[in-house]
Structures are given as structure tokens and as C-alpha cells.
Write a structure and sequence with these properties.
The protein has about 325 residues and is α/β, with parallel strands linked by helices. It is built from 10 helices and 13 strands. Strands 3-2-1-4-5-6-11 form a 7-stranded parallel beta sheet, sandwiched between helices. A two-stranded parallel ribbon has the order 7-10. Strands 8-13 form a two-stranded parallel ribbon.
């Protein structure tokens, strides 16, 4: 069995979708559905069973898993960059991952987990996925630190070469609809344009960047999934950036949205909330030489093509990946 934690979430459900396309349905989904709308991401997916995340981790800790695990793709986590409950983040994003990793290593199962580009902080020390430079990174928020802390633990335990950590940059695409404030700007902007005909972007509070010229590495979810699944059938280990390798501005992003909707760009710049100003990343760009060095050679979708596909094939049609 292949276990996908967070399998009803954004990237997790997209991974199950791609596994189905590859002919695999021996999949266990682990998640916490609660009262959210993410259950809709499960509709149309083929999988063998579903476990609540707390039930599953107890089975792991007690060594009572009733099936053989080929691999765990651990996408389950609190992904909110504004979450303030540090104890919750340490349990959910660190301790949970720690238990899963230990189990997989004991059972000789593949373990691939979601780290984050948030571990890089303000980018002062670059965006190179180099395990030797982990100690230099200083995340700007507790979410990033909880991810970074597991990376550090794995390095200290000398297991990074046996597992795979994926440092996702700004992923966007279908099946993110349940994420509230953590949705991509593409999804938020599409709604703003439908409602008011314009998009609101944060002003810049950094003299090096004009308003709207802050830059991010935006990657389409279909590419992020393919890059992740590259590690399912090989033995490469370590930390790997998953991005396009090319930073683009928020103006580029929003312009591509208006173009996909056949509309003229209309952008309004608004004040950034005070609580975000000291934690804001003005520039992110994945160095993807490392993932290329272990054989990933698929062409990565351009920002314009990814946005166009997302809007025309999914948002305009009110669809998810399987609906």
C-alpha cells in the first residue's frame, strides 16, 4: 500500500489523482476531514481505505498497521503560515512526522515528506537545498520553524540520505478551494475579478521592491506532484526544492489571470496588515539543480500556461481534478 497523509488536502489529493492516472489504487488516505469542504477532493479518487490522522498515528506507534506499507507520502500538516498555536504546530508538523519517519525506517518503507520553502526565511542565506547549510536558515514564522525543526532533527539523526524532504515553493492549482486564507492568490484574485473587476495586492514595505514587484516562485500543482512522485521509485534521499527555478512578480501573476479571463488588468495596491510586515518574504526562487541532478527532466509548466489551464479548465468550469 501507498499511504498519503493529508490525502484529502490540496497537494495530497492531487498526488492520489496522479497515482490513479498511473494505474495505482492500492492507496490509503489519512486525513482529518472535520467540518471543512476538503472531503470534496476525495470524490472521484480511487483508494482502498481512509483513516483519521489520530487513529493512524496510534496504529503506527503501537505497530498495529494491518497492511504492508510500500511508501508514505506525508503531506499532512498544518499549512497555515499565520497559525499562532506553537504547541499545535510542533505536535502536528514535527512530532507526527517524527513518528512516521521512524516507523518507515524500521519497516524499510519509503518516506517522502513535505518540508517547505518557508524554512528559508527571508532568503538571506539563499534558496539552495543543501543539507550542510541547514543550521544557517532562520524561518520567519512558526509554521516554517516547525518544518525546519524536523529537517534539523533528520540531519542530526543522520537519516536524511534515507528519506526525502520536499521543499515546496508557491504551489497553486485545482483542489485548493477549501484552504480559506491559505488559498493561492490565483484563486483569490479570480473571485475578486468576478466580483469587482479588479485585484487587490499588498503594497511593498521594502525599498528594493516596488509595489507588486515582490517576487515568488509559483509552481503549478501538476508539476509539484510529478516532482514529488519522481522519488517514489528510486533510492535518492535528502532535501529537494520543488519550484520552477524562476521567480516572477505578483504583477506578472495577476496579469496572467486577467489574460486568461480575456480582461484588461486592473490592480489596486492596499496596505499590508501590521502583523505580516516583519514576516513577509519579498523574494523566493527555488534552486532546482539538485532535483535535476537525480534525474528529473520533465519540462516545467510556465506561469502563464499554468494559470491559463487552472482558470479555463477548472475555475471557470467549477471543477476540481476529478469533478
Amino acid at each position: 500500500m501507498i499511504v498519503v497523509t493529508g490525502g484529502a488536502g490540496f497537494i495530497g489529493s492531487a498526488i492520489v489523482w496522479r497515482l490513479n492516472q498511473m494505474g495505482s489504487d492500492n492507496i490509503i488516505i489519512v486525513d482529518n476531514l472535520g467540518e471543512s469542504e476538503k472531503w470534496k477532493n476525495l470524490v472521484g479518487l480511487k483508494y482502498a481505505d481512509f483513516y483519521h490522522k489520530e487513529e493512524f498515528i496510534e496504529l503506527i506507534k503501537e505497530d498495529r498497521i494491518p497492511f504492508q506499507i510500500k511508501a508514505v507520502l506525508h503531506l499532512g500538516a498544518c499549512s497555515s503560515t499565520t497559525e499562532r498555536d506553537a504547541d499545535y504546530l510542533m505536535y502536528n508538523n514535527f512530532k507526527y512526522t517524527q513518528n512516521l519517519a521512524a516507523y518507515c525506517l524500521e519497516k524499510d518503507s519509503r518516506f517522502i515528506y513535505a518540508s517547505s520553502a518557508a524554512t528559508y526565511g527571508d532568503g538571506t542565506n539563499g534558496y539552495l537545498d543543501d543539507e550542510e547549510k541547514l543550521d544557517q536558515l532562520k524561518p520567519l514564522n512558526m509554521y516554517g520553524y516547525s518544518k525546519h525543526f524536523f529537517d534539523l532533527w533528520a540531519k542530526r539523526e543522520e537519516i536524511l540520505d534515507e528519506i526525502v524532504g520536499i521543499k515546496y515553493f508557491n504551489v497553486f492549482g485545482p483542489n485548493e478551494y477549501h484552504k480559506g486564507d491559505m488559498r493561492s492568490v490565483i484563486h483569490k484574485a479570480y473571485g475578486q475579478i468576478k466580483e469587482s473587476g479588479k485585484v487587490k495586492l499588498f503594497k511593498s514595505y521594502n525599498d528594493m521592491f516596488d509595489d507588486g514587484k515582490q517576487m515568488r516562485d509559483f509552481i503549478y500543482v501538476k508539476d509539484a506532484v510529478d516532482m514529488t512522485l519522481h522519488f517514489l521509485e528510486n533510492n535518492d534521499g535528502g532535501l529537494y526544492n520543488v519550484g520552477t527555478g524562476k521567480a516572477r512578480t505578483w504583477v506578472d501573476l495577476v496579469t496572467s489571470i486577467f489574460n486568461a479571463m480575456d480582461l484588461e488588468p486592473n490592480i489596486e495596491f492596499i496596505d499590508m496588515p501590521e502583523n505580516l510586515r516583519g514576516k513577509y518574504q519579498y523574494f523566493t526562487e527555488a534552486n532546482i539543480d539538485k532535483i535535476k541532478s537525480v534525474g528529473y527532466d520533465k519540462e516545467i509548466t510556465s506561469l502563464e500556461d499554468g494559470v491559463s489551464d487552472y482558470i479555463k479548465e477548472y475555475l471557470m468550469k467549477g471543477k476540481g481534478l476529478t469533478s
